[in-house]
Amino acid sequence: MTATDPALTALAQSWCALSLLHGRIEAHIERALQAGHDLSVREYSLLDVLSRQHSGTGGHLQMKQVADAVVLSQSATTRLVTRLEDRGLLTRYLCDTDRRGIYTDVTEAGLTLLEAARPTNDGALRAALDDAARNPELAPLVRAVEELKVPV
């Protein structure tokens, strides 16, 4: 394929549309979460991911798994965890079986904030998707997102 290959150009245009949709959704949710709950999208995502942990075998995520889940580097995730820990929303402790491992749990205050912010997040997501669906270039992507069946 060459740089002027129509298939490559179409692929690049599709990628740009997907990136545009993601950016619009994230910006819309960011504004809503900041205004209503003093949370960023990344902070909300981190609280959400960590709230799904459990105390059974394999129930706690290592920092690398958390970083992958919130799509950040490990160092950025560590800084994010520290910020939320400083706000009393998370706590860290050493793993019982591997003293080098550090686990992170959401505090009661973090769970309360997450539950209060969830309707804001969901409503902002719905509004951003509805807005994007009115754009002919983005409408097929919105339909694809709405039709995804992701296991929880």
Task: Walk me through this protein's architecture.
The chain has 152 residues and is mainly α. The protein has helices spanning 6-37, 41-51, 63-70, 74-86, 108-133, 139-147; strands at residues 90-94, 102-106. A two-stranded antiparallel sheet has the order 1-2. Helix 5 crosses helix 6. It is globular.
Detail the topology: elements first, then pairings.
Blueprint: H1 6-37, H2 41-51, H3 63-70, H4 74-86, E1 90-94, E2 102-106, H5 108-133, H6 139-147
Antiparallel strand pairs: 1-2
Helix pairs in contact: 1-5, 2-5, 3-4, 5-6
Measured between the Cα atoms of the first and last residue, the distance is 39 Å
Kindly state the number of beta strands. Answer: 2
* Structural class by secondary-structure content: mainly alpha
Estimated share of beta-strand residues: 5-15%
Outline the low-pLDDT stretches: none
Listing every helix as H and every strand as E from the N terminus to the C terminus, the arrangement reads HHHHEEHH
Tell me the strand order in the biggest sheet: 1-2
Which sheet architecture does the biggest sheet show? Answer: 2 strands, antiparallel
Outline: globular
Calculate Rg over CA atoms: 19 Å
Relevant terms:
152 residues; mainly alpha; two-stranded antiparallel ribbon; 65% helix
Q: Could you provide a short overview of the structure?
A:
This protein is mainly alpha-helical and 152 residues long. Helix content is 65%, strand content 7%.
